Amino acid sequence: MVNAQTAGATAGATPMTREQVKMERDEFLRTHRWDTETDNWVMKPGIEAPAGMKSRAEVKAEREEFMRNHRWDQVSDNWLPMDKAPRDLSKLSREQVRAEAAQFVRTHRWDDDKSAWVEITPRPPRARK
Questions:
Q1: How many percent of the chain have pLDDT more than 70?
Q2: Which end of the chain lies in a sparser environment, N or C, as judged by fewer CB atoms within 10 Å?
Q3: Are the CB atoms for 6 and 17 separated by under 8 Å?
Q4: Dihedrals φ, ψ of 13, to 5°?
């Protein structure tokens, strides 16, 4: 039990006290609310994100930029950079945009530490018995 409680602490760092955990929880509950539609915690209106965090609009803009400059290649099963000028996404059909956006979400995730989209490495297939 003791190891499970201290596993989150980094080497050399002292674990948080009960009071610190309560203060952090109270601060989070003061600044966030649970959204039942998205099943996610969202910041309350009027609360600014912590320094260094990109806004939702910035993240979406970066995703759109990536989509404009890359295309999905079924043969290589990977995103390939476009050789020519960026695509105008407004000229694509809704189905094409939805399909590419869904594929992007399946193959990438947002990394807060790097503030960038990173490719998800697929798990190797299971060995058959």
A1: 84
A2: C
A3: no
A4: -90, 145
78 phi, psi to nearest 5 deg: -155, 160
Rg (CA), the chain: 21
Residue that the structure tokens 């996404």 belong to = 89
Task: Report d(CA 64, CA 86) in Å as an integer.
Answer: 11
Task: Express as a percent the part of the chain with pLDDT over 90.
Answer: 11
Name residue, tokens 């190797």: 124
117 forms beta bridges with 110
Q: Measuring CA to CA, which residue among 67, 72, 44, 54 is closest to residue 116?
A: 54
The verdict on pTM exceeding 0.85 is no
Do the beta carbons of residue 86 and residue 64 sit within 8 Å?
no
In this prediction, residue 12 has a pLDDT band, given cuts at 50, 70 and 90, of low
